[in-house]
Design brief:
Elements lengths: L5 E7 L3 H14 L4 E6 L6 H11 L3 E5 L6 H14 L4 E4 L11 H7 L5 E5 L6 E3 L3 H18 L11 E4 H7 L11 H11 L4 E5 L1 E3 L10 H17 L2
Parallel strand pairs: 1-2, 1-4, 2-3, 5-8, 6-9
Antiparallel strand pairs: 4-7, 5-7
Length: 236
């Protein structure tokens, strides 16, 4: 049986310092995977650096977007690339080292038993390092709200560190995804549940980013909650 074609997708905006360190670690952890960076025309030269690496290593690919239009659209672009290019598995992760490259092989291996594997902060063995109390409370509240609102049984629904069977992404029809911000991750789980996906969570420890500043805030969190409520009210 042939090995699955694996794509690791990462959305970037001003992540050059992180990316320079991350690429070799991912190539070492999952040498058989292709790396796709969806870059929103980063002013710090992130996209330019990735293009230079890709000129030497064809497994490193750049999807350049002319402007920053929201994380949801960037995620959809990366996922659609996986569908269009016929990959079997798609790993989505952040490019700031909050998602350890060493966990990626475990995510991939777990797809033998599930269509969607979530690296979870909220199952036994998982956790968070470096968060203030208010961010922990915000994350707990969002995940509780989402489980009730969307009928999800998984515990970590707001994280982005996951591995998907691309066949399920194709069945779920990515063109239906509406959320443009961080709520895209919860919406994806909801639509995949509707498409009949099976889920599994494996523990990991989230650590704060190494370089740069986080792009999530309370305003974005409340916008995400509103978007998810509208999704549910529309009954999509």
């Amino acid at each position: 049986m042939p090995s699955p074609r694996i794509l690791i997708a990462l959305c970037t905006y001003n992540e050059r310092q992180n990316v320079e360190l991350l690429i070799p670690q991912l190539r070492a952890a999952v040498p058989e995977a292709d790396l796709l960076f969806v870059d929103d025309n980063s002013p710090d030269g992130t996209g330019k650096y990735i293009a230079e690496v890709g000129a030497v290593d064809p497994r490193v690919k750049l999807l350049h977007r002319e402007k920053k239009e929201g994380l949801g659209l960037a995620i959809r672009a990366g996922f659609q690339y996986a569908v269009d290019q016929g990959y079997d598995l798609l790993v989505n992760m952040d490019a700031d080292f909050s998602h350890p490259p060493a966990v990626t092989p475990q995510l991939i291996a777990a797809t033998q038993d599930a269509d969607v594997v979530i690296a979870s902060r909220y199952v036994h063995g998982g956790g968070v390092v470096g968060w203030p109390v208010q961010r922990k409370v915000m994350s707990w509240g969002i995940n509780t709200y989402v489980r009730i609102l969307l009928g999800l049984k998984t515990r970590d629904n707001s994280g982005s560190f996951r591995c998907y069977r691309v066949a399920l992404l194709r069945r779920a029809d990515l063109s239906k995804v509406r959320c443009k911000g961080y709520a895209v991750f919860e919406e994806l789980l909801f639509r995949l549940k509707q498409a009949g996906a099976t889920f599994q969570e494996i523990p990991y420890t989230f650590e704060e980013r190494r370089f740069g500043t986080t792009k999530i805030n309370m305003q974005e969190a409340f916008r995400a909650l509103s978007n998810l409520a509208l999704l549910r009210l529309r009954g999509e």
